[in-house]
Write a structure and sequence with these properties.
Layout (H helix, E strand, L loop, with lengths): L1 H5 L12 H6 L57 H11 L13 H19 L6 H15 L28 H16 L5 H4 L5 H9 L6 H17 L4 H19 L5 H13 L7 H11 L8 H18 L4 H10 L6 H17 L2 H19 L4 H8 L5 H9 L1 H18 L3 H17 L1 H37 L21
Helix pairs in contact: 3-4, 3-5, 4-6, 5-6, 6-9, 8-10, 9-11, 10-12, 11-13, 13-15, 14-15, 14-16, 15-17, 16-17, 16-19, 17-20, 18-19, 19-20, 19-21, 20-21
Length: 502
Amino acid sequence: MLRQFLSKLPRKWGKSDSPELARSNLCTTAGSTPQPHRSNSLNSGSGRLCGPKRTSSAVFPASVVAGIEPLLPFKDVPSSERMNLFVSKVSLCCVTSDFTDPAKNLIEKDVKRQTLLELLDFVSGYVRFSEPAILAMCRMCAVNLFRVFPPNYRSTASNGGENDDDEPMFDPAWPHLQIVYDLLLKFIASSGLDAKVAKKYIDHSFILGLLDLFDSEDPRERDCLKTILHRVYGKFMVHRPFIRKAISNIFYRFALETERHNGIAELLEIFGSIVSGFALPLKEEHKIFLWRVLIPLHKPKSLGVYFQQLSFCVTQFIEKEPKLCSTVIRGLLKYWPITNSQKELMFLGELEEILEAINMVEFQKVMVPLFWRIGYCINSFHFQVAERALFFWNNDQIVNLIAHNRHVILPVILPALEKNAQSHWNHGVLNLTINVRKMFMEMDDQLFMSCHIHFKEEEAKLSILAEKRKEAWERLENAASHQPISGNTAVLVTPLATPMAY
């Protein structure tokens, strides 16, 4: 046991030590075999995975080393030796513990906690980090944070957020994890961290490890990760294309395959700030991301969980380049929900925001299919959907667009208004419909009367066709009832005049 503990203390760096060799040991503890990238490094040492428990969102194998001893405090060593002591303390914190049992290894956990707090206080000041210190920090964070999550058996994602009243899953190791996250954040944000050196250790593999952690069920952990990834994106410009691509892949997998991920809202929030920093004119790859990633994210049932962040991203694109309005509207019409009224309300709200920013040219490109869809929403039996669609006429910007294109829009929308005025069950929707009809009459009375006459003519034609169809079926029934039944001839059964009593 003593030998295992001593193996945690750092050795002097020789000239033969290379960054490649150091990175190969990033996710391994001293005296143990290398682990896979997403291994449970909080409590490594056992290859067995326990089943999912209600009390934890991660799998915790047994502790590796017991009997942790504290090292000297920073104030007791000369300034020239403090970086070596920092490396020693960081290496000591690579010892892991089992947090599923609160009564287990209490002394070791407390010693490690005190050491982490001391490191946090040290990093908060101005420190010029050496390359061995950067390697040690990255290795310690990987050992403590990167871990495997069990399958998500909760159905929140698949039920479209219907179980929002369920309490979130809190990780029992969070008091320990929070200090490690704070330490990593202070480390990355430190002015003493040379990005040119640190990029060799905070590399693509390390970034993927951070992105994997966004699937944590603990919202506190996802919030910390969001802040840290912001810092990484801001500090390491060389990694920015890779970060965008890696986040896009998560969105692809979520929208097109699994529809299960706990961190979509946080990742979209990060991407919203990234989009706001895009230079103009927008690159083609960014426009492709809008069409192939953000628009399909409107499709999953769990849209309500991340709709606010998704809408913000789309709005940022439109503010950068208003010509994208018609592209976004076509995408919304493509993924428009037919049987989910709550999603329809979200789509209508986002659509109104887009129409407030659209110019006349882009509006004219999509106004016909757009108002066909709005007409269907006006006729919805769900009164909230019908009301939300009719509220468009309370927006001065939208009314102005409609007024300038009334010769095209009124013939499209009038049948829906007349149908509501004749037969909608909700009095609120009925009153709104009458108000919209009055607005069109005030815009152009002659056009309204012309469209109304045409509507009545079309309605009469449809009524005549319906009568002819009914008469044709009656003739077929009469002819079939007089035909003799032979062989495999199909039999037409006429409904009984009165129901049979049993």
